[in-house]
Amino acid sequence: MRGLLLLVLAAWAPPAAAQQLLDWSPDEVRAVGRHGPWPPPPVRDPSNRVSGTPAGIALGEHLFNDPRLSADGLMSCATCHQAGRDWSDGRAKGFGTVDLDRRTPSLWNVGYAHWFGWDGAGDSLWAQTIRPIVDPREMGGNAQRVAGLLRHDKDLACGYQRAFGGKAGDDDELLLVDAAKAMAAFQATLVSPRTRFDAFRDALVAGDRAAVARYPLSEQRGLKLFVGSGNCDTCHFGPRFTNGEFGDVGIAFFVRPGEVDTGRLGGLARLAGSPFNLLGRYNDDVSGANAARTRHVQRLHANFGEFRVPSLRQVGRAAAYMHDGSIATLEDVVRHYSEVNPDRLHSDGTPLVRPLGLSPQERTDLVAFLRSLDADPPPRPAPPPLCP
Ligand code: HEC
Ligand code: HEC
Question: Which of 5, 193, 210, 316 could serve as a FRET partner for 326 with CA atoms 20 to 30 Å apart?
Fold first, then answer.
């Protein structure tokens, strides 16, 4: 009887969440609002003439999954960037024909970036796509092999003609670039789903108090820290939670004794030396306006040990963190920011990262907030045949 009464009372009580609302100042509301809208409007890449085209995207998805692009015929992009693992491989460090020194990044939302790779050696998504095809540590392929497939495989040849409006010609390098452009068009469609945070942000900006209060208190406190005293959103800025640039947060740069990963410093040298950068002849934007960043970027000593600021969408679903996978859990990442040793940072000027000295409660809140950036993606159907 008593149990029944309690049950009835519980059913009548207002939902506990209704009281869970912190005060949000106008400045904080603006700061939170800048992390949206989600999803952002689709972007077209002017350097890639098949960007955003259905036929380009379809060809790209087939190539992405095709192991024949690799030297041994066994490895495709999807070997390391798996749909079921948030387009990564579930490992702390990538593995190819040899173990790699860096972690395989997720490809979610990669179409919105302007520098690619942990060191920014790519200035377009298609240039970044060429790298693993020809890198002997990864797929070990070459232009000739890719061009041969586009010319002679019945389905791919047909898909090529549909996407590019003509038969595959006899310039191998051009066909390698075109294959990469189709794969880039496909990758740009990988947009992560809306999250609990997005529902909260929209409600907060709209002033919908009831909807705002559905976002748990701990996540609200963590978000306040993130946009406030934690200073996280100077770098993890905007709808993707990255400003797309580079930073040093004090991760060790020794790969093994005597060998360092110089990060952005080496990436800029590789960018300048690449025949596939936006200053080269494969940029489809004849005005060259989209090459401004590549033209003006300077190689500075401060770039040593800088790595690309990762997006934080779907971050709680990753296997390990940082460019080298050296931090195992989100709890440990937050502890890192709480206790970071300023002597490990080698950036000039005012450091953006300093030890925050967070309490255990604050660390829990920050992690809770970060986890609210995760959501299960809907299952993916198998790609339809290229030319039925
Ligand atoms: C052997 C595993 C492996 C294979 C195969 C592989 N990748 Fe990757 N991918 C990586 C690793 C590791 C990185 C990080 C490289 C770096 O920053 O130096 C990466 C980085 C990327 C990035 C940059 C993402 C970003 O956030 O900047 C893109 C895009 C990408 N890969 C697409 C592809 C495509 C397309 C293919 C197939 C043509 C492919 N990858 C094949 C492991 C792999
Ligand atoms: C100076 C710019 C900067 C600031 C400020 C900053 N970060 Fe980062 N963050 C980065 C960079 C750069 C990396 C990658 C570092 C690397 O790989 O060596 C990173 C990595 C991360 C990662 C791991 C993501 C992944 O996929 O590996 C998380 C989580 C994270 N930051 C959260 C935070 C939080 C929380 C704060 C505030 C307490 C914060 N960051 C402040 C630049 C910054």
Answer: 193
